[in-house]
User: What shape does this take?
Amino acid sequence: MIEIDTRTREMIEEVRELGRVHMRPIGLEADRTAEPPPVDHPFYLICTQKGGLVSRMVGEGEGPGPTALDWKPVRNFLLGEEAAYWDRGVALSLPGPGLGGPGLRSTGTPEQNERWLATFTDHSKARWGAMAMTEPEAGSDVARIQTRARKEGDEWVLNGRKMFCSNSARADWIIVWATVDPALGRDGHRAFMLERDTPGFEILKIEHKMGSRGYETASFAMDDVRLPADHLLGGEEFYQSRRGFKASMATFNLTRPLHTAHGVGMGRAAHDFALDFIRSDYPAQGRRRQRALERLAKIRRGLHTARLMYLNAVWLAKNGKSNALEASYAKLYSPPVVLEAVVAALDILGEAGVRNDKMLEKLYRDVKILDIGEGTQQVQRVVVARQLFDFPRDA
Amino acid sequence: MRDFALSAELEELRAAAERLATAELAPNVRENEQAGRWPDSVVSVLDGFPLGDLDLPDRLGGVGAGVLAKVVILETLAMGDAGGLAAVDRPGSTVGAVLACPDHDLVAEVLTTGRDGSAQSGFTVIDPDSGSTGLDWAPGGPDLRWVWVSEENTLRLHEVTGTPTPLQVLAFQASGGVTVPFDATTVRGTWELSADTSLMVRSRARLWGAAISVGIAQAALEDTIEYTTERVVFGKPVAHHQGNAFDIAATAARIHGARLVVRDAAAAFDREEPHAAFWATQAWLETVDATFAATNLGIQLLGGHGFIVDHLAEKRFREARMLAMAAGARDAAEFDAAAHVMDVPDPLVGTEVAS
Assistant: This one.
């Protein structure tokens, strides 16, 4: 069932070259300094000038919406996997709509998609998009978001705080999820387009993290942020017919497989470090080598399964089929497998693996976030249980 | 680009297998287990598929539907009942040996006697360090005549000359069961194969078992959900307790992954990819773990009901273990995967990336 076309293969090679020359070294530097690359880093301009390739690497397509003929999510996710192989943190920091892309796709009208994705057609400057869901009091349980959206005349007024928002401190726009009435629960959710220079928007903090330091993770506040009515993504009718919460969940049906793709890339990196080490440092025969090879095979097995799971989920999305269950399957299965791959690679390297001049100890710190972002493994189990049977919300 | 859809023809075949599994196999599981065979009415339908010839190429008299078609049908039938599959699917798990054997006249004789229902085939993998004095188990009906042996890179075909001993084993009672020592056989041929071809011989047997294993796991999951959403404990259905729900969800994800890797490996064989056998062995390893998890949970969440024969949970638990013994069991598969892992490039991104 595995077949990829020549163009995809060529694009993977392009990403590989970018990764080898730029992303891996930049990621190591960001890890060492605990600072993501600055917005004027020359690499970002190179990426911007490469346009479509880079937007594909971060899970986006070249077209304005999921119906666009050139929306090739399978290809894009494979490129995302390859980018994460070199450095997932740097991959997430790359210019483009980022995680805001899937959010815009799943909620915005064609006109809104065209309008805000046009931001990225100017290749003279690196630009970013972002998406904000998590709040201080609403992490896994996104239904509890408290950021309020109030309609005043032709404007929406937003008040609240968001946290753990990737690239938001450098983004030209952020898709912000808010509620028109907390009492409505999930039905009160709305997605808004918040542009950078809007008065009342303030970056509060850029987090210091254990790993994945190649991209910034920020908190921000919205104090009486006023947005024109047309910044409500999808328009009012969208929420009456589709319901806001389902729209936000639809976003996850693309970002969860993307997370899995990133995990597979990182797991492959761990595998290759271990493979190199076996070749260079292990005896040619004997029980130690045999044991290492068995562990290597197990890494391959898990990563191959995880890859098929994310490809299956995005293939369903591409074909207009429901993929909520398969997206969560992938997100549930893959993070432990990827962590296990890194741990196995560390075991194979032994003491050499934890030296901080080796990539593996960084990978060990980097991968843990995969089991947290876009819904923890526990959240995925809840989602799957609700899909498979009538698992109650108050269980 | 990657395509997970089944062709219209295969979907039609799968639907027919599903009807058979639902209408004929599932309702009669225990009766067939007691009888030690599937009824002739079922066998005649399967001959019409034709089950044994689905994945055999034209040159061997098969229909050339492909390995993917075969694993999909095996999985579907096994959801109804896996018990008789080992006996009715000929050459079944020995298909890799049949394909690898360079003596075409001998292969034709084996296939002909399998198709006319006069002879059964068995398959075993021997560890050269341990050796073996015989075949521990083969399906019992029709009479066992052929025993394929894979020992490292050597393939042998034994013809049974003595009388096999009937044998009760852990599962697959509807396939009957016999054992035979090698000194009650005559070696009809011995061939040295390449390492890759030898792996293919073992891997096709593993893939056969993996496909059945996925069907068993899926059936176990569905029965588990049905029971646990009805049975009430501590004031709510068993499945509504979060600990149980989480286990069901994780198991379902593993089964989904197992199905994907089995079908992927099958499709790799159909495309004659050079490392299809490696991925088939990997698929088997992934699947036997997933199926053990699913069938173990199937008993666990049914509690005492899972342990009694009124439910099928205990049968699937036994079958899962039986399939985990196939083709040299776990050690042989781990050895094979380890022996090839450094030589197999990534199937999608091509050559290995220097880190």
Remarks:
- The first strand of chain B starts at residue 120 and ends at 126.
